[in-house]
TrEMBL record:
Belongs to the ketopantoate reductase family. InterPro entries: 6-PGluconate_DH-like_C_sf (IPR008927), 6PGD_dom2 (IPR013328), ApbA (IPR003710), Ketopantoate_reductase (IPR050838), KPA_reductase (IPR013752), KPR_N (IPR013332), NAD(P)-bd_dom_sf (IPR036291). It comes from Aliikangiella coralliicola. One of its GO terms (molecular function) is 2-dehydropantoate 2-reductase activity. Its EC number is 1.1.1.169. PANTHER family: 2-DEHYDROPANTOATE 2-REDUCTASE, 2-DEHYDROPANTOATE 2-REDUCTASE-RELATED. It catalyses: (R)-pantoate + NADP(+) = 2-dehydropantoate + NADPH + H(+). One of its GO terms (cellular component) is cytoplasm. This is 2-dehydropantoate 2-reductase. Pathway: Cofactor biosynthesis; (R)-pantothenate biosynthesis; (R)-pantoate from 3-methyl-2-oxobutanoate: step 2/2.
Length: 299
């Protein structure tokens, strides 16, 4: 079977993680960064095994087509990136969004209507520290339809080769629900940990959501009935608690952004939920305040 080639856009932890593991498993994988960077040897520390990987960086100006594009940028950077790609991409290919937030597929489809685009749910802990990439826990990558009607068979080769490089990768026929659930989980854990400057475990008290986190989740109840109609409030709460427990020693991506003086993805997480609520004439006052607090920290 011919090995697929990959362009990975976004030189953060997830971009480096996928690039390193794809190259390590024999794929041609190119990592694109916003500005020129010198090559570096990265020490990968992972439950799947430790190894050293040389990373060569390219910029969008040096673009060469590949079979698959993995987009690992921050949500607020996506529109500008798509504008650039619309000017340089010469052949149709598959694009996988490996990003937090919702409402992102619509941005890509606006600028790149000829491309096959799907949104992946990534559950991998990783961070970069000097010349080390620390893979804090092997998780999973789930792919499926949100706005599209692709079949699992169409993505069988891609899923197999991704899974061989960085397991576990799978197809989900109920992907929209999975992405909505991840959105809700992120809307609780990410901003609270960023505001309080604490690890993910800080939203828990004796294994259950603390009062602040539970109140934030309860305010979403009318929206949860619309975006997660097959799940009860108790089931959703248990999933938030499970993720917080399983990632208890991790810094949320939003906390990492705040500490690095970067713009967060709050507009595409809590902001997306607020937009959904407005369409139903529902007010989410706590989430509005949460966004104000995050914006204040960004500034």
């Amino acid at each position: 079977m011919k090995k697929l080639s990959f362009n990975i856009i976004g030189a953060g932890a997830i971009g480096h993680l996928w690039t390193s593991f794809l190259i390590n498993h024999g794929h041609k994988a190119t990592l694109y960064s916003r500005s020129p960077r010198s090559p570096q040897f990265l020490q990968i520390q992972s439950p799947l095994g430790n190894f050293e990987q040389k990373i060569n960086y390219q910029t969008i100006e040096d673009w060469k087509d590949a079979d698959i594009i993995l987009i690992c940028v921050k949500a607020h950077q996506l529109e500008k990136l798509c504008q650039q790609l619309s000017q340089i991409m010469t052949k149709p290919c598959h694009i996988i969004l490996m990003m937090n937030g919702m409402g992102l597929l619509e941005i890509v489809e606006q600028y790149l209507p000829q491309m096959a685009v799907i949104h992946a749910s990534i559950i991998h802990g990783a961070y970069i520290q000097e010349n080390e990439l620390v893979h804090t826990g092997n998780g999973k990558t789930v792919i499926g339809n949100i706005n599209s009607n692709y079949s699992e068979q169409e993505y069988q080769t891609l899923i197999q080769q991704l899974n061989e490089s960085l397991p576990c990768v799978s197809w989900n026929n109920a992907h929209r629900q999975a992405m909505n659930l991840k959105l809700v989980i992120n809307a609780i854990i990410n901003p609270l940990t960023a505001i309080n400057g604490q690890l993910n475990s800080s939203v828990l008290s004796d294994g259950k959501l603390n009062a602040q986190a539970e109140s934030l989740l309860k305010e979403l109840t009318p929206i949860l009935k619309l975006i997660l109609p097959k799940m009860s409030f108790h089931e959703i709460k248990e999933q938030v608690e499970l993720v917080a427990h399983n990632t208890r020693n991790n810094q949320s991506s939003m906390l990492q952004d705040i500490r690095a003086n970067k713009t967060t993805e709050i507009d595409f997480i809590n902001g997306y939920l607020i937009d959904c609520a407005k369409k139903q004439q529902i007010e989410l006052s706590q989430h509005v305040e949460i966004i104000k607090k995050i914006k204040a920290l960004e500034n």
